[in-house]
Structure formats: structure tokens, C-alpha cells
Amino acid sequence: MSFNIGLSGLYAANKSLDVTGNNIANVATTGFKSSRVEFADQYAQSIRGTSGQTNVGSGVTTAAVSQQFTQGSLTTGTANSLDLAINGNGFFMLSNNGEKLYTRAGAFHTDKEGFVVNSSGQNLQGYNVDANGNVVVGALSNLKVDSSNLEPKTTTSITNKANFNSSEAIPAVTTFSPTDTKSYNVKYSTPMYDTQGNAHTLDQYFVKTDTNKWTMYSLVDGRNITAPTTAVNPQTDKVDLTFDSSGALITSGVGAPVVAGAVGLNTDGTFKVDGWKPGVQVGTGTTATWALNGADGAASIKLNMMAATQTASASGLITQDQDGYATGQISAMSVDATGNLFATYTNGKSKVIGQVSLTNFANVQGLAPAGGTNWRETFASGVPVSGVPESGTLGYLTGQALEDSNVDLTGELVNLIKAQSNYQANAKTISTQSTIMQTTIQMT
């Protein structure tokens, strides 16, 4: 029996060496979780199931090799925008030709079809967007990056906040001309886009006409708003503005703006630009002409200037915003803490094109290793619970980062020494038993 006890000790020490060696081998494996070998003593049972107080155990057995799902440190600032690290609970769900696997290794990239995959070609699961660009949460599928161009959007709304210096003098030149800087006090420009994404410029000139009174002249690309093929006549598209004694723009009642031409007045105090005809210049110099460019402008553009002020400070534009843009191509991607996958386009715009999901289990120790730093669901783990990061008990994501192995190299080297000592001690018990056996034989 002593031979078997010593032999079980050798098996146990050898198992400890295997586990420790595997941990050390994966000290640099992304998302790897170290293992710990757990031993239990064993006793032989009599036929009647009784044992005396003088019985000796029959050795040791390996009770379990358990995974240690502690957080690994993060390597941040990686060059890949689809490198993802989980902070806290959860796993990435992968589809391996339909089989569901789970991992903490977040090194992903896109394949030739735009699907987000790992180095083994397994598809990352997440929530894609519908035809309206909204993330469909709840319907897990292979996460895909839509690399198509961002279609242009026609400008329909412009919001400008500006100040007009109340102490400025009325211009010496009384007849306004966009080419004569002495005929106006202030000019600022706003970019705008037609239905084909062509860029245009709305130029607005402001002329002080009296105390608290200004006149605004509007041109697009240096031409009249609604008639780009005719001679310039900025007097047709103008608005008379009046400010009250506190410097606020009067938008209704006595002193409300007086509009003319293409610029009208909405009931909420904002302006509207109707009938804009996008044009393109043909030729240069004195022979230059203008023609319609084949695109359309918005039927009505809302021009919000309600925040304009007149105070004794420098004139000029303070803030500006407009909702149009040109065609854009993907130039970069990023992922936020909640898993939203953002695409940034060459036109400066960005939008959500998907969302990464996370999955957790009631008993992560019950997961079965599947190789490749992956795990499988088992009966002991419980059913997977998926959701968006930062929901429930799920952790959050860090983009352009990877979770390192959680192996404590110093601790593992100590475990090697302990396993070696255990192996030597158990080998010694077998050697001693052999010596005793030889002595007994010699006595006969």
C-alpha cells in the first residue's frame, strides 16, 4: 500500500508541475487565465463502510484544476482600433461556424467581408444597426463593419450666434456692394451642402443703418440665393434687424425683422431660406458665368439667428452649426466604454455602426476550456446572459487595449520549487519502502 501512496504523490506533484508549466508558458498570452491545481486526500473504505481510528489514508488525488478569472492588467494604446479589453465581469461571445465560444482575448480585426473576427476567423457577436442606423439591441449576430460611403446630407438647418458692435459707425458708402468693404460693417460665412454633397457658402453681410438697426444681405457662392444664373442683385435678399435696449434681437411684434426676397420669417422667430438653386461657376474673370449644377437645395432652410446680440464689444461670429455634409469615407473607428462602435468619416462626421455585446455566467468556474483562450458553456456554468457593456453586472470596454495574462510569474516560480520538493519527497517514500521491502526479504 505504501508504494501506491507514494505513487499517488508523484502523480499529484507531476500534475502540479504541468499546471504551473502551462501557466508560465502562457504568461504573455492575451486574455489567458491561470489555473490552480486542487488536491484532496483519499481513504479506502471497508466493505461495511466502517473505519477505525487507526486507519491511514491511501494517498492523494487531484480534485480539480480550476481557472482563476481574476482581472489581468491592460496594455493600452495599441495601434489597432478593434483591440478591446474588458474591465470587470464578462466575456466576448464568438461564433465558430455556429458554435458559441467565450473569451477575454479582445484582439479583433475585420475580414474581407467586413465582419469583426479574431485571428482564428471566429466572429465577434454584437448588435448591428437597422436601415435607419439604429442599433438593434437584443438581436445578437455576427458584428459587421459597414465600410460603404456616408451619403451626403443636404443642409436644412443653420444656427449662428453673433455679436454686432453697438458703437460701430454707419458705413460711409451708403449703397451696399459685396465687393466694397466700406459699404458694410460685418461679414461672416457658413458652409452648406446641396443634394449631391457639393459644398457652397452662404455669405451674410451686415450694415448698420441706425441706432439698434442693421440690415442683413445674403448671397450663396457670391450670387443671389434663388437665381444663380442672373446678375448679382443683393438688394433683393435682405432682412432689416432691430435690437432692443438690452442688445437682444427683436423677433416679434414691434421691431420684428422685415424680410425681402428669398429670406422669410418663421412663426418661431427664426428665418427661412426658400427656393435655393445651387449653381456652379463656368469660366473665370470677366467672362465667368453661372449655371445650375444639376443638384437641388433643401426646399426650405431654417436659419436660426435668435441668439444674436448687439453690445459694445467686437463684432463677429461666436458659434456656428449646420446639419449638412458631403460624401464621406471611413477614416477611423473607435469603441467606447458601452461597446458602441463609431465610424469616423473623411467629411468630419461620425456615427454608430454597431455595438459589442458581453456575456456572463452564474458560475464562471464551470466553463470548460476550449483552447485558443476560449471557453465553452457547460451545465455547471449556467446559461449565458448577454447584454451591452455596463448593464447589470457586466463590465465596460476599453478600446485600443488588450487584457494581459493574469499569471503571477513570481508566484508560479515558487510553485515550481514546491512541486519539485513534493516530487522528491514522494520519490523518497517509494525508495524507503523499497529498502524496507528488501530488508524484509533478506530476513526470510
What does this structure look like?
The chain is mostly beta strands. It folds into 3 domains: 2-70 and 407-443, no CATH class; 74-149 and 329-403, no CATH class; 157-322, Tick-borne Encephalitis virus Glycoprotein, domain 1 (Sandwich). The protein has helices spanning 2-25, 409-443; strands spanning 35-41, 60-67, 74-76, 84-87, 92-96, 99-103, 109-110, 116-117, 123-127, 141-142, 157-165, 186-193, 199-210, 213-220, 238-242, 258-260, 263-265, 271-274, 279-282, 289-292, 300-304, 309-311, 316-322, 330-335, 340-345, 350-356, 358-360, 368-371, 374-376, 385-387, 396-399, 401-403. The longest helix is centred in the last third of the chain and has 35 residues, at 409-443. The radius of gyration is 38 Å and the shape is rod-shaped. The model has no long low-confidence stretch (mean pLDDT 91).
Describe the secondary structure blueprint for this structure.
Layout: H1 2-25, E1 35-41, E2 60-67, E3 74-76, E4 84-87, E5 92-96, E6 99-103, E7 109-110, E8 116-117, E9 123-127, E10 141-142, E11 157-165, E12 186-193, E13 199-210, E14 213-220, E15 238-242, E16 258-260, E17 263-265, E18 271-274, E19 279-282, E20 289-292, E21 300-304, E22 309-311, E23 316-322, E24 330-335, E25 340-345, E26 350-356, E27 358-360, E28 368-371, E29 374-376, E30 385-387, E31 396-399, E32 401-403, H2 409-443
Parallel strand pairs: 11-21, 11-22
Antiparallel strand pairs: 1-2, 3-32, 4-31, 5-6, 5-9, 6-29, 7-8, 9-10, 9-26, 11-23, 12-13, 13-14, 14-15, 15-16, 17-18, 18-21, 19-20, 24-25, 25-26, 27-30, 28-29
Helix pairs in contact: 1-2
